[in-house]
């Protein structure tokens, strides 16, 4: 499928980490030399590299060290934070409106009680209930964090992301219940955005804050247009950036212009959204095409073709 696209026109590559660029299990830091090499070579050709993850800054840093990029843009917490690569400082933050943080948490706890545990990403700090830390275990909590006993205390400082963990439900089941039952009132659509990036928990950000909206904002500020962007992802929280790159925001398909035959076409309207073979169905539906799985380095496969086309075009 990738052979049908003119990749030489692209100026910006945006990739998710877990399940996408990372070729290991969730929350691992395994990036292949092949993936790192093609990203470095594209950067040397003048292509802007963007790493966009639901991860907080602290767990993105080890991956960025492996990639060895000179000037990547770093989107953290599902678009809630833009991180400076050199100083590892927060450049931009898009928190949930502070007055709505406690009411949102209270709604969740009132509905599900002690069957759920709360965590919050607040700048560079993670705060959570003791039950959250216990359930996630030492392997996942191997970073500084603060245990909170009073729910009101979660709202004392800006919160870029709420993390909700259920004792027995997976993320998809919890997402469905939270969206349809806890925040069924239409007013919440103007306050929060609910998504998930793995099977373990759901994530809540401010409304209109997502990987896609933050990517669009950075592109607008730096004079990149959607038709110059290719994005890679595998989960529900990647849908907005896949649609920004390759489909209209309402999810409708781009218009394709036929060349010599219907089966031999090039994409002329927008950029390209690529889902992984291992992707959640929501990501696959949002994408223009599906590459190989993360374990088979599907991102590198596409980007190597892009690099080849760029160099071939430059040589002509």
Give a quick rundown of the structure.
This is HAD-like domain-containing protein. By secondary structure, the protein is an alpha/beta fold. It has 10 helices and 16 strands.
Any chance you could write out the topology, listing elements then pairs?
Blueprint: E1 12-15, H1 17-21, H2 33-44, E2 48-52, H3 57-67, E3 73-76, E4 81-83, E5 90-93, H4 98-112, E6 116-122, E7 125-128, H5 130-136, E8 146-147, E9 161-166, H6 171-182, E10 192-196, E11 201-206, H7 211-221, E12 229-233, H8 239-246, E13 257-261, E14 264-266, E15 272-275, H9 281-286, E16 289-290, H10 298-315
Parallel strand pairs: 1-2, 1-12, 2-3, 7-8, 12-15, 15-16
Antiparallel strand pairs: 3-4, 4-5, 6-7, 6-9, 9-11, 10-11, 13-14
Helix pairs in contact: 2-10, 7-8
In spatial order, strands of the major sheet run 5-4-3-2-1-12-15-16
Number of helices: 10
Q: Work out the number of β strands.
A: 16
Query: Please, what is the CATH homologous superfamily of the largest domain?
Result: HAD superfamily/HAD-like
Domains counted in the coordinates: how many? 2
Order of helices and strands: EHHEHEEEHEEHEEHEEHEHEEEHEH
Global geometry: elongated
Q: What is the name of the CATH architecture of the largest domain?
A: 3-Layer(aba) Sandwich
What fraction of the residues are assigned to beta strands by DSSP?
15-25%
Indicate the low-confidence ranges by residue numbers: 249-269
From the alpha-carbon coordinates, what is the Rg to the nearest angstrom?
20 Å
Distance between the termini: 24 Å
CATH domain fold name of the largest domain = Rossmann fold
Proportion in helices = 25-40%
Mean pLDDT: 90
Major beta sheet summary: 8 strands, mixed
CATH class of the largest domain: Alpha Beta
Helices and strands: which structural class? alpha/beta
InterPro entries: HAD-like_sf, HAD-SF_hydro_IIB, HAD_sf
GO molecular function, one term: magnesium ion binding
Protein name: HAD-like domain-containing protein
């Amino acid at each position: 499928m990738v052979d049908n696209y003119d990749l030489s026109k692209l100026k910006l590559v945006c990739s998710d980490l877990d399940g996408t660029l990372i070729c290991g299990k969730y929350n691992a830091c395994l990036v292949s030399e092949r993936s790192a090499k093609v990203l470095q070579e594209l950067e040397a050709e003048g292509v802007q590299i963007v790493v966009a993850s639901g991860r907080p800054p602290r767990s993105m840093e080890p991956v960025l060290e492996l990639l060895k990029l000179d000037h990547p843009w770093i989107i953290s917490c599902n678009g809630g934070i833009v991180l400076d690569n050199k100083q590892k400082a927060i450049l931009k933050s898009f928190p949930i409106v502070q007055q709505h943080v406690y009411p949102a948490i209270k709604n969740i706890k009132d509905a599900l009680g002690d069957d759920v545990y709360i965590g919050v990403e607040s700048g560079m700090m993670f705060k959570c209930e003791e039950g959250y830390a216990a359930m996630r275990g030492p392997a996942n909590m191997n970073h500084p964090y603060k245990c909170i006993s009073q729910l009101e205390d979660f709202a004392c400082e800006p919160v870029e992301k709420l993390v909700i963990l259920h004792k027995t439900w997976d993320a998809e089941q919890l997402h469905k219940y939270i969206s349809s039952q806890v925040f069924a009132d239409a007013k919440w659509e103007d306050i929060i955005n609910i998504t998930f990036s793995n099977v373990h928990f759901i994530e809540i950000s401010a409304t209109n804050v997502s990987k896609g909206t933050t990517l669009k904002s950075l592109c607008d500020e730096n004079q990149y247009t959607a038709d110059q962007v290719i994005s890679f992802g595998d989960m529900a929280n990647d849908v907005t950036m896949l649609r920004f790159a390759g489909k209209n925001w309402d999810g409708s398909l781009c218009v394709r212009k036929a060349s010599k035959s219907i089966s031999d076409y090039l994409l002329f309207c927008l950029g390209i959204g690529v889902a992984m073979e291992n992707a959640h169905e929501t990501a696959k539906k949002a994408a223009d095409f599906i590459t190989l799985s993360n374990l088979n380095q599907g991102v590198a496969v596409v980007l190597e073709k892009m690099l080849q086309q760029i160099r071939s075009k430059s040589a002509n």
